Amino acid sequence: MEKQNNIVLKTLRIMSKSGILDNVLLVESWCAYFYKQYFSKIEYNPVIKTRDIDFLVNVRPTFSKSVDLEELLKPIGFEIEFFGSGYMKLESEELAIEFLVPEIGRPSEKPMPLPALKLNAQPLRHLDILWRNPIKVAVSGIFIRLPHPVDYLLQKLVIAGRRKKADKSEKDRQSALAVLDAVIDNDELQEFHKAVKYLSKKELKTVTEELSRAGREDVLA
User: Fold this and answer.
1) Which of 38-47, 66-75, 177-186 has the least mean pLDDT?
2) 61 with 116, same domain?
3) Torsional sign, CA 208, 212, 218, 219
4) Could you identify which of 37, 100, 135, 156 might form a hypothetical disulfide with 176, taking C-beta atoms 3.0 to 4.6 angstroms apart as the criterion?
5) Considering the entire predicted model, what is its pTM?
């Protein structure tokens, strides 16, 4: 675990120096882990990290300069791997880096090109929720951008309600509820109510059903 943590920090430092972190959000399980910096005044036990570290770009990504991310990360053991319809990941023994983008319009299996990084991003539904109100935290002197915790938990509940595999659905649900508890303990339930208004009708219906399933529908009152 310590070796993986060191690779994560080295990766983030390289991406910070190249300006990439200014234009992406760190999402998924490592995002939940780094919320410990945001929830520093309360008891917060982050969920277990995974091998994947995911970065979300906007639907119209902009980068201050073009870089060859594979070349930058090659000295610490990364190389490009291709999957499915040409989707690209940067893989090392300890870590797999993925870039994601909100899917808008008709579903497509084609990856979105990121020429500024010489990579591409995988389009997925409901990721636009995460761009509502990003926050910034410091990790070992590196500033990284994360979705606001309430946006993270809402997106996780939406995904949990749409998963076909029960184990993955439960994992998303538990991650969302852990962050919800932290939001409440951090006196930010008002921010939760504000974020709910940005959901589509279908997303709100799914969130309501998931909270009801967990016996937590009271937070919507």
Assistant:
1) 38-47
2) yes
3) negative
4) 156
5) 0.94
